[in-house]
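Issue 218. Parser rejects a valid record. Input:
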Amino acid sequence: MHLAGTDFQKSVWVALQQIPYGETRSYKQQSIALGNEKAIRAVAGANGENGIAVIIPCHRVIGENGSLIGYGGGLQRKKWLLEHERKHSGKETQLGLFA
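Output the parser choked on:
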């Protein structure tokens, strides 16, 4: 797959692909995984620039407190996707935190 973006954006998108189906990560966890804990806003911005959200699962990134934030497709879709994955993965996620 050819990703069109800056080197930083590409690194964020690759990291998104490392989040297993049915699991979530916070923007802070993603920043730490990329080696820069202070890059939370930059990670969120790169998530928003993800042009192929159907393939690169940016909906799996949530707020540190478990809240649903930041999804171009709308928070209702994000919630639906996360609930769908939880239901079909057999894994527990942080979904209980954002009723």
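Fixed in the parser; the record now loads. The CA atoms of residues 13 and 27 lie 13 Å apart.
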